[in-house]
Design brief:
Elements lengths: L9 E6 L5 H15 L3 E6 L1 H10 L5 E3 L12 H30 L3 E5 L10 E5 L10 H15 L4 E4 L21 E3 L17 E4 L6 H14 L5 E4 L15 E4 L4 H10 L2 E4 L3 H10 L4 E2 L6 H12 L4 E2 L7 H7 L22
Parallel strand pairs: 1-2, 1-4, 2-3, 4-5, 5-6, 6-7, 8-9, 8-11, 9-10, 11-12, 12-13
Helix pairs in contact: 1-2, 1-7
């Protein structure tokens, strides 16, 4: 009898467009799936979709409704209330879009990185998140937002957490609540690797996240860097932003950068400045580098993660609006970088089972 032909599943990977972090951390997963023979398709929006289009020009890319999240205030609840209508509309829109994609492309597996409505009754649905215990400030608000998130996670067959399960982890209580839904800890995810040809900038600032806060931090860094007696690289993370004018000669500006370029810059930098988003933290752990963390105002997750790593002496923390880069260049010498003691390969063989 002829040997039964092996079925290579068709996997659709989707990421939230809340900055670039969700898209970048999915990249090792995308490449692992390709190595196992899966037929991979992508779905995203905004700058994150542009990143995937550049990195994977041969993979099908479907554009989803943008969440359009913006952080106007320093209060999490005001921001979430303002963004809630757009989030709901986007989640409904992506759910409708997925139903069409499953029908036309015979998709077997859906992996959704924090896209709330990206599941289908006819597919295996996997939800990727590190936010099992969202760090809202008020107890009632914390209970409500986590109850809602558990309901969303319950729509998926599995929940994958990109962190270690034990005490030696990067996210603390954020991904390790006392009670949580059935999850699989798959280890940290990062597209970066230490560079053998590092660049030699004194300060490397990597910008990310929603507007207008990304632009506010960019302006503050540029103002301080202008008078800094050090070489500075600013990676804007915004391929379609307006070009900067009258930048001093000791400041280099990249609107956008590939993973190898970012790794080379961060590997050789004396000081790395970035948000305390979890994807950035996983990148730093991969490189073994500490950083100056500047949490996005009003984003309680980043505030928690920055303090968590500061208490472990894995970085220093300054607040947007009160940056002191020169001081950070001195203080960073006393910090040790986070160590990535778990690699992501253990979950590779599990991906397509």
């Amino acid at each position: 009898m002829p040997e039964k032909q092996r079925h290579f599943p068709r996997v659709l990977v989707a990421a939230l467009d809340w900055g670039l972090g969700h898209a970048t951390r999915c990249m090792p997963l995308i490449e692992a799936l390709q190595q196992q023979g899966a037929q991979v398709m992508l779905a995203c929006s905004g700058n994150a979709a542009e990143l995937w289009r550049r990195e994977y020009p041969d993979l099908p890319l479907f554009i989803l409704p943008a969440y359009g999240i913006r952080y106007r205030w320093n209060n999490m609840y005001l921001n979430m209330l303002a963004n809630a209508p757009r989030i709901v509309v986007a989640a409904i829109g992506e759910h409708i879009r997925l139903r069409r994609l499953v029908k036309t492309h015979a998709i077997d597996v859906v992996i959704s990185d924090n896209r709330l409505g990206f599941f289908h009754p006819a597919t295996r649905n996997i939800y990727l998140t590190h936010q099992l215990h969202i760090q809202a400030q008020e107890p009632l608000g914390r209970w409500l937002v986590n109850a809602l998130h558990r309901q969303i996670i319950g729509q998926y067959d599995e929940c994958w957490v990109p962190d270690a399960e034990g005490d030696d982890n990067l996210s603390g209580a954020l991904s390790h609540p006392p009670v949580h839904p059935s999850t699989r800890y798959i280890g940290p995810l990062s597209r970066l690797a230490p560079s053998l040809t590092p660049l030699s900038f004194d300060v490397v600032a990597v910008l990310s996240g929603p507007e207008p806060q990304r632009s506010h931090l960019e302006a503050e860094i540029l103002e301080q860097a202008t008078y800094l007696e050090a070489s500075v690289l600013l990676i804007r993370g915004a391929p379609h932003a307006k070009p900067l004018v009258q930048v001093p000669a000791h400041i280099t500006v990249w609107d956008f950068a590939a993973g190898k370029q970012i790794a080379a810059a961060m590997t050789g930098a004396r000081l790395i400045v970035c948000r305390s988003g979890y994807s950035s933290i996983m990148d730093l752990a991969t490189l073994g580098r500490p950083a100056l963390f500047v949490p996005t105002p009003g984003q309680t997750e980043q505030i928690y993660l920055a303090d968590y790593l500061k208490n472990k002496n894995l970085g220093i923390v300054q607040q947007q609006g009160r940056l002191h880069v020169a001081l950070a260049l001195r203080d960073i010498e006393n910090c040790s970088g986070p160590e990535l003691k778990l690699c992501v390969t253990p979950f590779y063989s599990y991906c397509l089972q």
